[in-house]
């Protein structure tokens, strides 16, 4: 075998070995990390920590491009809601070609073990507004406890695939876990982040969602952004802080948004180092 053929064979074998690894995190030069937040209380602190900030507006969505410890970072202000999050994620991927996306911000508690200021690292995120009902005759009432979760179908590399939920990237999750020691305002746990265009305060409904979808917390963006990232093959992780818990009668505190941003910046610093 000639040297040229050997080199070519080695290159082919390497390419085959790495096929399907598009979700593995890599931070090559000039490919930024995108950090998403829906509201000012979820983004302004992070923006203030970037150097050389440039603001870009595309449609109804704003992006703040800068550097953190010399590495390119984009803060995406997605606005609130599933459609906003999906649109912002598409624009971020198409415009910045990110090496990873972290969706973070405030949320309401579903798990009785968790309290305000605890942080949930999304092992998975799930759209709990995606369900079907069986036939019910007129006058028989509405029975939410019998609603049935459905799957979502998206194209991944041209192939339709069904998803019950969306897994957080394993490397991003591991780095976030290893950063937990820097957080002093509550616990950091792994769990399921539930997303829907809803703000639930009825305790029985919260209990039903928690029991049915195994959710730790609810908010309005993560699963939608994760769905788009999955379609593009971009490593993704959701990180959510409990800003309120109806279960424990703990009202919304905007400080939670800053606490979460501080933690997420520490995670990103670990990634880029």
Key phrases:
disordered N terminus, alpha/beta, two-stranded antiparallel ribbon, 5-stranded mixed β-barrel
How would you briefly describe this protein structure?
By secondary structure, the chain is α/β, with parallel strands linked by helices.
Model description:
The protein is α/β, with parallel strands linked by helices. It contains 7 helices and 14 strands. The protein has helices spanning 3-18, 44-48, 82-96, 170-178, 203-213, 222-232, 255-272, and strands at residues 33-37, 51-58, 61-68, 71-77, 100-109, 119-127, 131-132, 148-149, 152-156, 159-163, 166-167, 188-195, 215-219, 236-244. The chain has a 5-stranded mixed beta barrel, surrounded by 4 helices. A two-stranded antiparallel ribbon has the order 7-8. Strands 9-10 form a two-stranded antiparallel ribbon. Helix 5 (203-213) links the parallel strand 12 (188-195) and strand 13 (215-219). The longest helix has 18 residues, at 255-272. The chain is globular and about 60 Å long. The chain starts with a helix and ends with a helix. 41% of the residues are buried. Mean pLDDT is 90; it is low at 1-24.
